[in-house]
Amino acid sequence: MEIPKAYDPKEAEKSHYEYWESNGFFTPEINKDPDAVKFSIVIPPPNVTGSLHMGHALQHTLMDVLTRWKRMQGYRTLWLPGTDHAGISVQRKIVEQLKKEGKKPLDVGREEFIRRAWTWKEEYGDTITEQMRREGASVDWTRHRFTMDESLSKAVRNVFCTLYEEGWIYKGLRIVNWCPKDKTVLSDLEVKEETKKDGKLYYLKYPVIGADRTLTVATTRPETMLGDTAVAVNPKDERYKDLIG
Predict the structure, then answer these.
(1) DSSP state of 219
(2) Where are the alpha helices (DSSP H) in 141-199?
(3) Banded pLDDT at 191 (limits 50, 70, 90)
(4) What single-letter DSSP state applies at residue 106?
(5) pLDDT digits (tens, 9 = 90+) for 44-55
(6) Alpha carbon distance 144, 139 (integer Å)
(7) Topology adopted by domain 13-169
(8) Is the per-residue pLDDT at 203 higher than 90?
C-alpha cells in the first residue's frame, strides 16, 4: 500500500463523524450513569441564510472544547444545535425572487410570501448544518431546533404576553427607523449611519416691505423657500424687534 506524502483530513473526517453521529456519541443518553451531573450549552443559532465565518468557527471551537471536556469528565452533556430563520435576510431573498417575476410582496399576499420563504429555507438551509458537521461539532443533531418551530414560537408568544402583562412592553411615542420602501420599522442594527461633513449653508435675503432693507436667513435646505409664508425672529434680538408683528 502506498502511503501518501501528505495527510488528507477529508478522507477520515466524514466517515468518522458519520460513525460518531449514527452511534449517538453526542447525545446525553450515551452516559448511562443515573447520578451523572448535567451540563448543557445552547448554541447561538447562526442564520439559516448564510455561511459560517471565522467568528462562528472560534465560537464553536470554544463550545466544543467545553462540551467534550465535560463529557470526558463524566457529565451528562448536551450541546444543543439550532438555526435562526433570519427573517429580514430571507425576506430580502424572496423580494428579489419576486422582483425577477415582475411582482411585489403585496401582489402575492402574506400566505404565499411565507410559503416561498419556507421553500427557500428547505432548499438552501442545509448549508450551515453541513458546515457544522465538517467542523466536527459534537452537537446532538437529534435535538436540532429552528427558531420558527412551533414549540419555540409558542414560548416566544408566552414570554411576550408575560412581559406585556408585567408592564415591560408598552405602547409609546418613540423615534423609529421607518423604511419607506419596505413600509416597516427597522432595528437600529439594520440601519447604516452616514455622516456628511460637506454641508453647505445658503443665505436667503427676504426684502422687508416698506423699508430699504432685507432679512437674511441661513439654511441648508434652500428648496423649502418656495413654501415659506413667514419668517420668525428672536423677540429678544434688538436687531429685529421692529419687525415683529
Answers:
(1) E
(2) 150-165
(3) confident
(4) H
(5) 999 887 788 999
(6) 9
(7) Rossmann fold (3.40.50)
(8) yes
Tell me whether strands 76-80 and 202-207 are parallel, antiparallel or unpaired: unpaired
Cβ atoms of residues 205 and 214 within 8 Å: yes
What whole-number distance in Å separates Cα of residue 185 and Cα of residue 172? Answer: 14
Instruction: Report whether 155 contacts 75 (CB < 8 A).
Output: no
pTM of this structure: 0.66
Q: How far is CA 108 from CA 99, 103, 169, 180, in A?
A: 12, 8, 32, 20
User: The cell 419607506 sits on which residue?
Assistant: 180
The CA distance from 38 to 89, in Å, is: 36
Contacts with 173 (C-beta within 8 Å, 6 or more apart), sequence order: none
pLDDT tens for residues 45-93? 998 877 889 999 999 999 999 999 999 999 999 999 999 988 878 888 8
Q: Which three cell numbers stand for residue 148?
A: 420558527
One-letter amino acid for residue 26 of the chain? F
Residues 33 and 71 sit within 8 Å (Cβ to Cβ) = no
For the chain, the structural domain boundaries read 13-169, 202-243
